[in-house]
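Milestone 3.1: sequence recovery, worked example.
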């Protein structure tokens, strides 16, 4: 499906709002205005975005370096920020293969930067929507070998995806045994009022946003083996230094990595 004409600078987009949180330059006024409304509800949202990045870096290093995964499927890639997932993975394993997926035409415009990897490995980009997982899987097969383990990254994505459980099940069912799922997800467990106000900002702009509690997030991993430390606040997943308890409300999300038996 051709989505290259979907770019509308007058309507905020999740990927461009996230770019704003991270201090990037690839967004429009509508994205900045919506992001500022979120910042009023969650003043530490920039910290949360940075911790999301930190989690995927730690998870990718572990999967590529310690476990030996050589294939990665990253859905909801967002606008590139250094280091990108393929840079982290290929630093550990130069022959790693990475497929990025996003539905924002601005991410498509940056796809060349995402595809500059090592000579030994391979990187590719699919312009597709997370709500159409079979389309993603069909396209990913051109780069990834679905007879070998794949690490599926769903970072800060599923709370923006209608039918998230069904989408995830379709993706995981297609993965071979020994594959992994790395996920972070928004929650209202630590700051109900701030998250409620945040959801309102998104919904008023026609953007779906559905936070989940810890048990609901753990449900995504039904039938999988959770890596230690399980489903924990994003900044606590194998952090090099144990963060203070007060940080939980500032980073309102959970993270986990699971292995498909």
């Amino acid at each position: 499906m051709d989505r290259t004409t979907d770019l509308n600078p007058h309507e905020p987009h999740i990927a461009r709002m996230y770019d704003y949180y991270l201090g990037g330059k690839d967004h429009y006024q509508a994205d900045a205005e919506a992001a500022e409304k979120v910042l009023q509800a969650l003043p530490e949202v920039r910290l949360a975005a940075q911790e999301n990045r930190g989690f995927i870096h730690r998870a990718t290093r572990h999967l590529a370096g310690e476990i030996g995964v050589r294939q990665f499927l990253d859905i909801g890639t967002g606008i590139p920020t250094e280091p990108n997932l393929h840079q982290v993975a290929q630093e550990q394993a130069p022959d790693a293969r990475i497929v990025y997926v996003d539905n924002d035409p601005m991410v498509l415009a940056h796809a060349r930067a995402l595809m500059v990897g090592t000579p030994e490995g391979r990187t590719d980009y699919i312009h597709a929507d997370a709500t159409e997982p079979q389309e993603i899987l069909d396209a990913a097969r051109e780069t990834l070998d679905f007879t070998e383990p794949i690490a599926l990254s769903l970072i800060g994505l599923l709370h923006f995806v209608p039918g998230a459980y069904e989408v995830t099940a379709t993706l995981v069912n297609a993965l071979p045994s020994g594959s992994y799922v790395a996920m972070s997800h928004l929650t209202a467990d630590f700051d109900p009022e701030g998250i409620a106000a945040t959801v309102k900002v998104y919904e008023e702009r026609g953007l779906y946003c559905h936070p989940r509690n810890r048990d609901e997030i753990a449900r995504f991993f039904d039938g999988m083996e959770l890596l230690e430390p399980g489903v924990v606040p994003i900044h606590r997943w194998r952090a090099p230094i144990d963060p203070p308890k007060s940080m939980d409300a500032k980073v309102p999300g959970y993270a986990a990595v699971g292995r498909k038996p």
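The domain at 14-236+246-259 is CATH 3.40.50.150 (Rossmann fold). The radius of gyration is 17 Å.
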